[in-house]
Design goal:
Blueprint lengths: L9 E5 L6 H9 L4 E3 L2 E3 L13 E3 L2 H9 L3 E7 L3 E6 L1 H9 L2 E5 L2 H10 L4 E6 L3 H10 L5 H15 L7 E4 L3 H16 L6 H9 L7
Parallel strand pairs: 1-7, 1-8, 2-7, 3-4, 8-9
Antiparallel strand pairs: 3-6, 5-6
């Protein structure tokens, strides 16, 4: 674990429903010293979901109270139905643990986080094609025809925002895409601009050294 108290590096992962971003987020969190941000939502949990794992499920009244008291880094109402938000406390917990933070959020939430945390790194997940995206949505067998069409329309709108992200990962093969998203995290951590303090300390150790 790295030194606590430092400002965590924040990775934002976005992509249309069906792009496989949740699976790739799991791959990203496997990188050392990563922490997954647990979001809040007003939607009911699905049968396979456990509170506190990916989401904390809260009543809309409580969610709105959190908005009013400024408890979210970002929040949005998706499809005009349910609210999703990232608690500011997730950033504090990452700082305490000395870890970097991974946010799985939509493009609207990503823009909000970027305004507050300009150093956040955005990774956009793309499906290999529209046909493959539709196939994945249908394969899940959990959405009506209207819902699938709504998700495809939203996917087109979201993908128009890819230019606001630093990296794009095409999820054509889950294992290859997993390695690519992990490589992004490693490369970002090695950027000179993010290591100036460490480099300066290393150079300072040479001062006064015997020639």
């Amino acid at each position: 674990m790295r030194a606590t108290g430092r400002v965590p590096l924040v990775f934002i992962v976005s992509g249309p429903s069906g792009s496989g971003k949740s699976t790739l987020v799991k791959k990203l969190v496997e990188v050392a010293d990563m922490r997954l941000s647990v979001s809040c939502t007003t939607r009911p949990p699905r049968p396979t979901e456990r509170p506190g794992e990916w989401y904390n499920f809260v009543p809309e009244e409580e969610f709105r109270r959190k908005i009013e008291t400024g408890e979210f880094l970002e929040y949005a109402c998706v499809f005009g139905r349910h609210y999703y938000g990232t608690p500011r406390g997730e950033l504090d917990r990452a700082r305490t643990e000395g870890k970097d933070l991974v946010l799985e959020i939509d493009v609207q939430g990503a823009a909000q986080v970027k305004r507050q945390l300009p150093g956040a790194v955005g990774i956009f997940i793309l499906p290999p094609s529209r046909e493959e995206l539709e196939r994945r949505l249908r394969e899940r067998s959990q959405d009506s025809e209207d819902e699938i069409e709504r998700r495809l329309n939203r996917a087109r709108q979201e993908m128009a925002s890819y230019g606001e992200y630093e990296y794009v990962v095409v999820n054509d093969d889950i294992e290859d895409a997993g390695r690519r998203i992990q490589a992004v995290a490693v490369a970002v951590r090695l950027e000179v601009a993010r290591n100036r303090e460490r480099i300066a300390g290393f150079l300072a150790s040479f001062e006064g050294a015997t020639q």
